[in-house]
Amino acid sequence: MTVEDGPATVLVVDDSRTKRYLLVSWLTRAGFAVLEAETGREALERVGTDGIELVVLDVRLPDMSGFEVCEQIKATQPALPVIHVSAHAVDVVDRAQGLTRGADAYLAEPIEPDELVATAHAVLRYFRARKRAELFAERLARLAETTVAVHAAPNFACLLEEAATGAAEIFRTPAAVVAETVDGDCLAGICPGLGASGSVVPWTVDDTGVPTGTTVRIDEPSDWGLLDWPADDRLAVAAARLREDRAPVYVVVPAGVHTPGMPVLVQLGQAVAAAVEAQRSYDEEHRIAVTLQRSLLPRRIPVIDGLDLAVRYEPASAQTEVGGDFYELVMLDGHLLMAIGDVAGHSLHAATVMAELRHAVRAYAVEGHQPGEILHRVNELMRRLLPDELATICVLLLDPVTGQVRMASAGHLPPLLAVDGRVDYLQHSAPLLGVRAARPPDLEFVVPPGATLVLYTDGLIERRDATIDEGLDALAAHAVDIGADLDAFCARLLRELAPSEIHDDVAVLALRRH
């Protein structure tokens, strides 16, 4: 919708050809675009279809009174100005009736051309000011909705799609939003127009000379060949740069749709830039956390005679905060130390707590302690140094020669033992790490030749549409037929049990004894 003050379109409604000719001539010479109608019914049809901004309406028409026509116009378009004109002598009652039933002015014979033109300009100034205010309020409401949507977007691509769709909704035009990811990839969210869906495409912009802050410039459509822009318009480009060391964010829409100063476009550019900067910071933190996680986990799986080992570890999806899942596989004094755990929370902090716990478990295991004592000491360490943290963990020491296992758990999900098609969960109920409470003795059992032991974190079996018990049942069903390749089995668990978009870290350890 164009908001420039161009020539107004006026509809003159009068059944007298002579009088209509005079009114049309005066208004045309004054610079108005003038249309004509002879009856009330014709006038109502034209008002609904021809973009009329002012109606000059005779009081007496052959099919209905001008008062009735005015009332019907105001019922559908309350802001549209109507000026009554009358060639007959009128009294105060007539004037009062016309104004009471919706007219904005009342002129009676003899009508002076200058008075008619001045009255038309006066009512149009109010009409256009009201339309601008209504348009501005509508755009601000849509701006608020778009700001919420871009800040709630789960990832960078969705953010650009929401921003472009929102810009198209605000200005009712094609729109594009261009921004650079934290990795330096420049992407554009584009939307062909009101009601259309947004999409993301690669696009490169020359940022030379763009200052910090928000600026607006006018570009040619050929500079932004992302969309089919209106052929008779140029483009308004808001460039918002919040930090000197970051690439700016661009919002691009046709220039003709803006009010003076382009305040809504400026605010939209700033809102999108703030959301982009938050997403960049989050993506950067997520990447650091994932890198930290991977660097602190075991670099390789030990090779042990008589055992097959397989591991799968998948960090949470990019749009989810990183978690604190960890595992350990290391040979100590002829025994295999297996551990798997999960620090409460999802953040870079959770990943650093995970690293401290993993190193503490290794240190106490190197000292020769059994699993229960290891967890007791780790728990005391947590309560002293990390009093606000909680974690679950399961620690096992296995003799590869005999298959004898000692296990202690701290609130972790029970390991699964599969033997000849039979599947059992090894329950060892105990409080979480970080809680002062009595702990049960270690659980002792044997992994017989041919059996498979599976340890896992809750990201494997927890789904929003299922209970924990249903997840455990699904895991047991998959473990009935593990197959010869443990690595393929672990991959199958992640593919078929974990959700397609992983919202929590997933760790799986599988051990088979020959």
TrEMBL record:
Pfam families: Response_reg (PF00072), SpoIIE (PF07228). The modification 4-aspartylphosphate is found at D58. Residues 9-124 form the Response regulatory domain. SMART domains: PP2C_SIG, REC. The keyword Hydrolase applies. Keywords: Hydrolase, Phosphoprotein. GO terms for biological process: phosphorelay signal transduction system. PANTHER family: STAGE II SPORULATION PROTEIN E, STAGE II SPORULATION PROTEIN E-RELATED. This is Response regulator receiver domain-containing protein. It comes from Micromonospora pallida. The lineage of its organism: Bacteria, Bacillati, Actinomycetota, Actinomycetes, Micromonosporales.
